[in-house]
Each structure stands twice: as structure tokens, then as C-alpha cells.
Write a structure and sequence with these properties.
By secondary structure, the protein is an alpha+beta fold. The chain has helices spanning 4-13, 55-66, 106-122, 175-186, 226-242, 294-305, 345-361, 388-397; strands at 34-35, 37-44, 46-47, 51-52, 74-84, 90-102, 128-133, 137-140, 156-164, 166-167, 171-172, 194-204, 210-223, 249-253, 257-259, 275-283, 285-286, 290-291, 313-323, 329-342, 368-372, 375-380.
């Protein structure tokens, strides 16, 4: 399947999001990566009265409402949200997170508002959480772009690689083939560790046909050194060559704070509290060959995490791996929990208490924490949605205090 037409659409119309295969890349010699924003839309699937938005219904919504507005592509994550209501009852909710990479322009803001309005109306929802990332975010669609700042004093950044698994001619990169690629190509270059997510991508081609694609997202926390940038480009080149791909999407977020344990001062604690995002990566291997079970982890979330952040959180399944000092690759089932909260000292203390409890209860050495303080949050509830003429101003300038409102959807 040719994506060159989609790439041309991006360069001429500047109306880009992105697809996971996103093979609309034509080779550019050491070009500067695109400056886009990342928009994450959190869709809860519970419906009042005990119903649920089915997988089929959600896919139809993506096909009919989201993809036509962002035909260049999107990424869909499965997740679970939960919150604690005013009576102390835990509410769990299956969810979908749709990630878009797009230009920060008014027409895209209007499209996002139309998507939110349509979902709320079609499925009787009170809200959809929107989180836009305005960091030093650099996005590449191939290899050879100047992706990292290469700071004089190296700092940790987050780099996400989006690997589409469709192969031209109706083939597909299998789970075992992808795992072998991670083991032989990615992990030796980043032995300290990585995290893998199973996702789905889709885009709309020039004929209006929607192309769906099973995909993988590999998250790396690494220093923004030239050697690491070179390694990322080699990984991209190897994947394209081995599996006949035209592109791999790479998104480098260069404005995050990273901790691998306790006691690091990750949060600014602004005089006027601001909403920030924190992601905690929990490995589930236990020394001695044991594993934190699904039920044990859920109990930990219910008893330790949710009481500290009752307004809501989102849980993703993932797999981590690293290479030990002997060269053995260690694989580990993992959970990633994403929070949106105010950057107060109390919340920072709560994060540290959660980490300390997990380390002690399950004999862990570390919990990875990634904090992003440059986000824009909008949590639209049951109040009327702005008409398109007012959407741009509302979205660009509103950062809503959602500590209470998150209780409604748990995301």
C-alpha cells in the first residue's frame, strides 16, 4: 500500500496527525523532525444504566467520526480507568485512548471538539478527557532526521517508536517476529530497558478506504546523546529493511522528568497549582521466579493508589524487558498507570508513598516515574460543548481544575 499521497497531503495542507504504519515517508537526508503536538483523547466506555460501549461500536465511531477528520492516521490503546465516588465505592471502567499527532491549528481544534461532542451525544457520556502535549516534541517518520537536541549536559528524554505490522502484499509481522526484532536489534542498543505496548493504528487512503493495522509502541527513556539518536535511527532503518516498511514514527518528548526510585524532586510544586501528567511503570516480576498477579496488582491499585488519587487514573497493560550484565534478556509483564493531577507537594508525597509501598510489598528494586509538566488539559462534562466559532479560544486557553470532575469518568 502506498502512502506517498498521504505524505504529500501532510506537506502541502499541514493537516497531519499520524498512522502507525504511516508509511508515507519519502527519504529526506538528515531533515529536521516535524514540530507537532500530541493529543490524547480518553474515552470511557461505561454507559449510564449498566451498559457499555462495545468494541464494535467504538471501532465504528473511530471509522465514522475520528478517522475522516484525521485521515493521516491515529493510534488506539486499550486501557482501564477507575475512580472512587463520594461514598468510597470504586468504579472501574474499560476505556480507549486515541493518540493523534497533529498541527496546532484552529481547524484541528474544531475537529477535536466535534469528535468529543459526537461521542458524548452518541453514547450518553458526560465527558471525554483531552490531554495535549506542548513539550519540545519532535516527530520523525523515517530515519536520518535530527530528532534530539543533544544537550551539552545529557538529560533523560522519552522516545516512543510506533511500529506498524502490516507488510505490503497482505503479510503481517507476527508477534514472534517482532519479539525477535526487539531482542536482537532494540534491546542490545538500549540494554537498560524498554516498554512495549500492543496497539492498533489506522488511516484513510486517497480512495477513502480505511486501513487498519496491528502495531507496537516501544517506549524508551534515554539520554539525548548523539549516540542514542544514532541508535534510534539504526533501529528504524533495520525495521524498514527487514519488514519492507516505508516508515516508523518516532516521537521524542524532550521536556520530561524521570526517576527510577524514591526521593527525587520531580514536581515543581507551583505557587498556583497546575495540572501535570505522571506515568508510573510497575514491573511485575518478583525475585525468585514469582510474579505479581493480575488480582494482586488490582488489589494494590484499589487499596493503595486509588484512595490517594480518588478522582481517577488510567491503567495500561505493557511488557518490559532489559539485558542484564551477563547478556541475558529479561522479559517482564508490566503495568503503566497514568495520572492527571495538580503539582502540589501533597500529590508528590502520595506518588512517593505509592512507590515505596510497591517496592516493599512486592520486593521490587524500582518503579520508573515520568513526569510531564507542560500539558494542556480539558475535561468536558455535561455543560454545553462550545460551538466551533468559540472552540479555538476555549481549547487554547483553558486549563481546567479537574480534581473533582475526574470522579465522573475515572480517566
Amino acid at each position: 500500500m502506498s502512502k506517498k499521497n498521504i505524505f504529500n497531503k501532510f506537506t502541502t495542507a499541514l493537516a497531519t496527525s499520524t498512522a502507525l504504519s504511516l508509511a508515507f515517508m519519502v527519504d529526506l537526508p538528515k531533515a529536521k523532525a516535524f514540530s507537532l503536538i500530541q493529543e490524547d483523547l480518553f474515552f470511557g466506555r461505561n454507559i449510564a444504566g449498566g451498559q457499555e460501549v462495545s468494541q464494535r461500536e467504538f471501532q465504528a465511531f473511530v471509522d465514522g467520526v475520528i478517522t475522516p477528520r484525521f485521515p493521516s492516521g491515529l493510534t488506539i490503546f486499550d486501557a482501564n480507568g477507575q475512580f472512587q465516588d463520594s461514598t468510597g465505592k470504586l468504579i472501574e471502567e474499560p476505556a480507549k485512548v486515541v493518540t493523534l499527532f497533529r498541527e496546532d491549528i484552529p481547524t484541528n481544534e474544531v475537529s477535536i471538539s466535534e469528535i468529543v461532542r459526537a461521542y458524548r451525544k452518541q453514547f450518553n457520556q458526560e465527558s471525554v478527557l483531552q490531554v495535549a502535549n506542548f513539550d519540545e516534541l519532535a516527530v520523525s517518520f523515517g530515519s536520518g532526521e535530527d530528532l534530539f537536541n543533544n544537550s551539552s549536559v545529557p538529560k533523560f528524554i522519552q522516545t516512543d517508536l510506533f511500529f506498524g505490522r502490516n507488510i505490503p502484499g497482505d503479510g503481517e509481522v507476527s508477534q514472534s517476529e517482532f519479539q525477535a526484532f526487539v531482542d536482537s536489534v532494540i534491546t542490545p542498543r538500549f540494554p537498560s530497558g524498554l516498554t512495549i505496548f500492543d496497539v492498533n493504528g489506522q488511516f484513510q487512503d486517497s480512495t477513502g478506504t480505511i486501513i487498519e493495522e496491528p502495531s507496537k509502541v516501544v517506549t524508551l527513556l534515554l539520554e539525548d546523546a548523539l549516540s542514542n539518536e544514532t541508535s534510534v535511527n539504526k533501529i528504524v532503518t533495520a525495521y524498514r529493511q527487514q519488514f519492507n516498511q516505508e516508515s516508523v514514527l518516532v516521537a521524542a518528548n524532550q521536556d520530561v522528568k524521570v526517576s527510577f526510585g524514591l526521593g527525587d524532586d520531580l514536581i515543581d510544586n507551583s505557587p498556583v497549582p497546575e495540572l501535570i501528567q505522571a506515568d508510573l511503570f510497575f514491573g511485575r516480576n518478583i525475585p525468585g521466579g514469582q510474579e505479581v498477579s493480575e488480582s494482586e496488582f488490582q488489589t494494590f491499585v484499589n487499596s493503595v493508589i486509588t484512595p490517594r488519587f480518588p478522582s481517577g487514573l488510567t491503567i495500561f497493560d505493557a511488557n518490559g524487558q532489559f539485558q542484564d550484565s551477563t547478556g541475558i534478556i529479561i522479559e517482564e509483564p508490566s503495568k503503566v498507570i497514568s495520572f492527571i493531577f495538580e503539582d502540589t507537594l501533597d500529590n508528590e508525597t502520595s506518588i512517593n508513598q505509592i512507590i515505596e509501598a510497591y517496592l516493599q510489598q512486592f520486593s521490587q528494586e524500582s518503579v520508573l516515574t515520568v513526569v510531564d509538566e507542560d500539558i494542556r488539559v480539558r475535561f468536558v462534562e455535561s455543560q454545553p460543548v462550545p460551538e466551533p466559532s468559540s472552540v479555538t479560544g476555549a481549547l487554547l486557553f483553558s486549563t481546567l481544575i479537574i480534581a473533582c470532575r475526574l470522579k465522573k469518568k475515572g480517566l
